[in-house]
């Protein structure tokens, strides 16, 4: 994992730590320490900078501004707390993959939920996971796989272990959006039409 990926994982850990203490302010330094305990620093991140703080902790501390901006946590004099939106985010899966017969088009193997190339990115604005890809014309089948394995997966209409989603695509840019509440996928092609 890159330093950026590590920081993103630790930000998710911060929200999860605060979700374990809903309504109770927790000292920021304690929250940061708990996040680092769940996702230890690499050798590079462990280097202590001139201020006496490890590089990874300094990066994480600065990155928490994103959590405040997105409305997931609040920082106050008495400590940090989680918001209602943050609680929903904390309950969300750590990784969501769109695994299907187009994996090779994205630089991965087909039907490989652990591949980085098929991981969807979470959007706090839409509260969904998104993946945009340029695909040639064809028929594509896929499922959503949670946390990089097939143990928890959703097919058409959000059915657990259900039939594959099927997309008849004329070619071009397509965006997939997965909503963990409905467990279903919405597809938008470049011209804005929903599939």
Automatic annotation (TrEMBL):
CDD domains: X25_BaPul_like (cd12962). Coiled coil: none annotated. Residues 96-184 form the Amylopullulanase X25 domain. This is Amylopullulanase X25 domain-containing protein. It comes from Arthrobacter parietis. The lineage of its organism: Bacteria, Bacillati, Actinomycetota, Actinomycetes, Micrococcales.
């Amino acid at each position: 994992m890159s330093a950026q990926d590590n920081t993103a994982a630790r930000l998710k850990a911060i929200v999860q730590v605060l979700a374990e203490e809903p309504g109770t302010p927790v000292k920021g330094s304690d929250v940061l320490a708990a996040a680092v305990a769940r996702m230890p620093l690499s050798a590079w991140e462990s280097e202590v900078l001139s201020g006496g703080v490890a590089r990874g902790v300094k990066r994480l501390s600065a990155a928490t501004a994103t959590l405040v901006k997105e409305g997931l946590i609040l920082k106050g004099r008495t400590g940090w707390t989680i918001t209602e939106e943050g609680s929903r985010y904390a309950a969300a899966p750590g990784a969501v993959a769109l695994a299907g017969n187009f994996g090779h088009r994205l630089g991965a193997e087909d039907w490989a939920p652990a591949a980085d190339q098929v991981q969807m990115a979470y959007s706090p604005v839409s509260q969904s996971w998104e993946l945009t890809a340029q695909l040639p014309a064809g028929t594509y089948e896929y499922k959503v796989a949670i946390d990089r394995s097939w143990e928890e997966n959703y097919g058409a209409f959000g059915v657990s272990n259900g039939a594959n989603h099927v997309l008849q695509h004329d070619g071009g840019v397509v965006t997939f959006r997965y909503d963990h509440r409905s467990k279903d996928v919405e597809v938008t092609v470049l011209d804005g039409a929903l599939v």
